[in-house]
Amino acid sequence: MLIHPMPNPIALQIGPLAVHWYGLMYLLAFAQFIAIGRIRIRQPHIAAVGWKKEDLDDMLFYGVLGVVIGGRLGEILFYNPAYYFAHPADMIAVWKGGMSFHGGFLGVLLAMWLWGRKRGRHLMDIMDFIAPMVPLGYAAGRLGNFINAELPGRPADPSLPWAMIWPNVDNIPRHPSPIYQMLVDGILLFIILWFFARKPRPRMAVAGMFSLLYGCARFFTEYFRVPDYEVHFAGFTISAGQMLSVPMIVLGILLLVVAYRNKQQAQAPAQAG
């Protein structure tokens, strides 16, 4: 059995200036977006439609705003509105943790739509392009959650080799759920999506695959995490994270169906000719 190391959430402090690990994880997430994006731009089917390095830098500015604002608003509205409305000063305390992926996802959608309007690009082309760059950023965020000793797991069998006691919670062995989500929702999803996106796909297919896979992965890993709250529906009990993942699963299926149906319809006249 393991014990959470409970590291200092402050990575570096110089006088009144404190640099938090959580903030550094977001910086790492944005850095990998640029690094992975530059590799993706060199893929022949991506270069063929005119993506350039300059697009990444400009897009990142919009994306950062979408992630931070959307992620924080999602945390406030989706997960803990009562607390934040009772403590409004904590709404801006992002260095303490507390960012909703689902809120950030919506924030990025809006940010990319605004960027696309400025640059004359279709929203779904943008989402297809950036989808493979998202999972590793998500993984970095979950590592930040673990460092902050946030999102403790559900009680685990003490015989589980990696069962972990979280001293800030209790003395019960628990699943290290942020690590599960980092590995499954983040790294594993990146590997699958990266190989899927290496070949030309119809518009909406890569974004649809991301939405479907993330929704399914998050729904699964939520079983190991203490839920923020639970929802009862048709005799089933699911967590808040699972409830918010269901629309992503549905959206992913719809996007994939439409993408490949449009591809078949486009191919039919050519075959007939």
TrEMBL record:
Organism: Herbaspirillum chlorophenolicum
Record pathway: Protein modification; lipoprotein biosynthesis (diacylglyceryl transfer)
NCBIfam families: lgt
Annotated TM spans: 20-39, 60-79, 99-116, 123-141, 179-197, 204-221, 233-260
EC number: 2.5.1.145
Subcellular location, record wording: Cell membrane
Name listed for the protein in its UniProt record: Phosphatidylglycerol--prolipoprotein diacylglyceryl transferase
Entry's family note: Belongs to the Lgt family.
InterPro entries per UniProt: Lgt
Highest taxon of source: Bacteria
